[in-house]
């Protein structure tokens, strides 16, 4: 047996049971695990071409997978100022002032990660930054990536001087006199300014994407569920793979936006299966609402400002028809649904689609769908709901019954809300609904499969930080602060499963991924210690010793 890689002196952790296996070594060949055993036994399989890595007691787990991220758009959005470090209006103005001082005349200023909580009780509007941004074209992305704040000069260059009507739930926020405040809600509004702003070259975008993916591998990620395929994303993945520069296994879900008709949905179905060895189109992403922070979520009762009262699709029944068409073709859906009404409608749509025929994946989708979904072609379609920030009991209990996967991002709760409910998200919802924040444990205990992710660039991508946040639910900046809803914290094993067995099941790949077993893919993450016994508040700092994708080392710590 010729092995390409052997890992010895390891502790092998089974994420299914949480037990450390008796074996201490792993042998890899042709991208698969071919043997588990003792060090001496596995070393004997090596030949001159084998790379042998002694991890010195490190803990091997199946490769960690981010269940929701945006690699290409994130790489683009995170260029410019990182405004996530700003905690109040004064610190924001200081950061912007320093950057403005380094600009050439007429040069654009870009920022990302802006937390609306820095404005305190003031409205989020460009007037608060006018003394700093006078005459400067600036576009600042808010942390949710569903909204931007444009300076007066940027609005002028984009020709924005009043409200407009959009096909989706988007808005140019205006004051009582009809003048734009600078706040742009949802993509259709934000794109008006983005179109006139300078754009990086394609080569710059490709290099930036490659660098981001390398950083993800160094953080321990071997895979990700990419929730968009906008622009030339797929071509960039293909180029990186051809060059040997794709260090993550990516499953990509293109968007289905409001206004997509039956022919448009059919085109998305035909797209299923496109890809290479390490990336593949698998599923479709839809939006049922926006965000609570912006007042664009869909709630069963308005928020305390009277907002969040409508769906992202002007005709929610059109969304339901799209889900039915995709389900009949065996295509899994992932629906962005944050508010309780949005979550309910997404579950209703899945239930109606299942009742209409309950097709098995591949039965109606043609050769492309069958090829794309592989094993899942012989299983029921696995639909997902993304985010689920606030949900009542009766809706929560439906996930397990319908087999719908709960995809959640616990660090959003940690870093953008507060235990005392003084943050923007909680103030908008009010005490009762804010107390139902990110019900990860309730969903898990109800029998639902819970998949964890970062939604990068909304939150940081290191998977150990995501798992830690699911356990401690405290602000990353200050772990001495009290947790928001500690009763909804996951235990260590559930958090690990949320980034191993959970994503594998969601992708219909549980027979090939998410476990340390002979025949499974050799996607592996090696940590300095056991993540199940490491304290939650220390987990994010646990060193990643080795990352392996498809049997190939994508990250190796200097200590090895």
The radius of gyration is: 23 Å
Going by helix content, strand content and strand pairing, the class is alpha/beta
Identify the overall geometry.
globular
Strand order in the largest sheet:
8-9-10-11-13-12
Strand content: 15-25%
H/I helix tally: 22
User: Main β-sheet, in a few words?
Assistant: 6 strands, mixed
Average pLDDT, all residues: 92
Uncertain regions: pLDDT < 50 for 5+ in a row? Answer: 359-379
What is the terminal separation in angstroms?
25 Å
By DSSP, the count of extended strands is 25
Helicity, as a percent range: 25-40%
Structure in words:
This protein is an alpha/beta fold and 560 residues long. Helix content is 31%, strand content 19%. It has 22 helices and 25 strands. The protein has a six-stranded mixed sheet with strand order 8-9-10-11-13-12, with helices on both faces. Helix 2 packs across helix 7 and helix 10 crosses helix 11. The chain is globular and about 80 Å long. The protein starts with a strand and ends with a strand. About 4% of the residues have low confidence.
Summarize the structure.
The chain is α/β, with parallel strands linked by helices. Strands 8-9-10-11-13-12 form a six-stranded mixed sheet, sandwiched between helices. It has a six-stranded parallel sheet with strand order 16-18-19-20-21-22.
Describe the secondary structure blueprint for this structure.
Elements: E1 5-8, E2 11-12, E3 25-29, E4 32-37, H1 39-43, E5 51-54, E6 59-62, E7 64-69, H2 71-77, E8 81-82, H3 89-100, E9 109-114, H4 130-133, E10 138-142, E11 147-150, H5 152-158, E12 171-174, E13 180-185, H6 187-194, H7 202-218, E14 221-226, H8 233-242, E15 249-252, E16 255-256, H9 262-271, E17 279-281, E18 284-287, H10 316-328, E19 333-337, H11 340-355, H12 366-373, E20 384-387, H13 393-396, H14 398-402, E21 405-408, H15 410-416, H16 424-429, H17 431-434, H18 440-445, E22 450-452, H19 463-472, H20 492-497, H21 501-506, E23 524-527, H22 536-539, E24 544-549, E25 552-556
Parallel strand pairs: 1-5, 2-6, 7-14, 8-9, 9-10, 14-15, 15-17, 16-18, 18-19, 19-20, 20-21, 21-22
Antiparallel strand pairs: 1-3, 3-4, 6-23, 10-11, 11-13, 12-13, 23-24, 24-25
Helix pairs in contact: 2-7, 10-11, 15-19
